[in-house]
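Intended use. Records like the one below are meant for learning the mapping from a protein sequence to its folded structure. Do not use them to infer anything beyond what is encoded.
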Amino acid sequence: MKSLSYLMSALVCLSLSFPVRAAVDVPLSSDTLPRHPFLGVTAEPAPGHHVRVAGLYPDSSAARSELKPGDILVSVNGAAIDSVSTFVARVRSFKLGDRVICHVQRGINEMDIEITLGEAPREQPNDIQVTYDTVRAGEATLRSLITMPTDGRSKRPAVLFVQGIGCLSIEAPLATPNLTRDFAYRLTRSGFVVMRTEKSGVGDSLGRPCRDVGFHEEVAMFTSALRKLKSYDYVDKDNVFIFGHSAGGWIGPLVAMQEPVKGIAVYGTVVRPFMEYLIENRRRNVWLRTHPDLAELEDEQRQYASLLHYVLIERLSAAEAIAKHPELTPVTKKVFLQDFDHLFDERSLQYYRELNDENVARSWASLNLPVLAMIGEFDIRTTQFDHEYLAAIVNAQHPGRASWQVVPKLDHGFVAHQSLDDGVANEFVGPFGEQVVERTVTWMEAQSAAKKALPSSAVDQ
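Structure written out for the chain above:
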C-alpha cells in the first residue's frame, strides 16, 4: 500500500513545503531576538531520505544563485541532508552573511552551489500595524508577532492564536497565501489585536528544536504568550480570547485553566483520545485520497492501531515494538519516516504520548466560559462529531455556554472549495474562506457585549 507522506502530520494545517527563513526584529523593548539567516528555499521531502528544492523566494539569496527548483539537496557545507528538519537545522546554525556550499544533484549531474545568506523580509501590511516582540517561556525565548488595528482606540479586544501541531513558522512576509497570517490580518481588520507565537526553535525563537519539545512544555509556552499578550497596555484584559486551530484546540483549554480568558473559539480540532483520532484520521485520508482496496486498508489499519498502542500506551520504542512483533515492520516504516524517535517525522514520541494521555474533555468540562467549536464542511482531517461532542461536553456542565457550527465549503486550512472532491484534491489551495473570520468576529463581539456573569473564565474545582 502506498506510503502517504501527506499524513506525516495528523492535525496540522500544512503543505509539504517548509520555508527556510527568519523573522525580522522590530524591537519593542531591550528583550529582542537576533535575526536568523534567510536562504530563500522552500524545501520538501523527496524519496530515499532526500530533500528537494520545491521553490525559491523572489529576490532571495537562493534565487540569485544557481540553485533551481527540483534540485536534490545532498549536503550543506559537507553535512549530509536527509530530511527537511535536518536542512532547516543546518541553515539555522549559520549567521547572516555566512557563505554556504549546497551540494546538489540535478538529473544525472552533481554540483556545488555557493550562496551568501541574507536577511529575511518583514511583514509590512499597509492597513494594520505589525510589531515583533518576544515571549520568555522557561529556557526558551519565543518570537511573537502582534497585529494591531490603526483605529486609534486606547483599549482593544485581543486574541491569542494557537496554531496546529507542526513545527512550521507563523511568520509570512511574502505574498504567497498563509492561513495563519491571513486569518490574523482579517481578524485585526475587524478590530482585534492578534498575537501569533513561534514555537521553540522555529523562526527567530531560541530553545530546543520544536520537534523535541513535549506537549506539556508547549502548553506552558503558550500560557506564557497569553500572559504577555494581557500585559500590553493597549489590550482590554477583560476581553482576551483564545483561538485554537487544529491541535491548538487541545492547547487552548489547558492554557485557559492557567490564565483566565473571555472565551475560546476552535476550528478543526479533536476532543477524543488522540490515538483514537490518529487511527480514524488515517483511515479516512487514505480512503479519500488514494481509493485503495478497502479490505487491504483495514488489514493495515489493524497493524497501525497495534503499533500506536505499543508506542503510545505501553510506551515501547518503535524498535522494541517491531522486535516483539515483526509483522508491524512495514507500517512502522511508514509512520516513522526518518527515525524511531519522531512519529510522522514531526514531533517526538514524548509529545504524542503526553498528548494522548491528556483527557481534554475533562479540561473543557471544567471551564465555565463561552466556547465556539467550528469545523469546515470539507475538512477531512477532523470530524463534525468531535465539534458537536465538544459543545455537548461543555453544556453538560455549564448549560448554554458552548455552540458548534459547520462552516460551509471550507477545508481544514480555511480554504474554500466547490465540492468535497475539490477539497481533497486541492486541500489548502484556493481562496481564503471569509466565513470563518466573520463567524469568529460575530461570536467574539457578542461575548464582549454580553453582561458578564463571571469576571472571566472560571475553573470548577
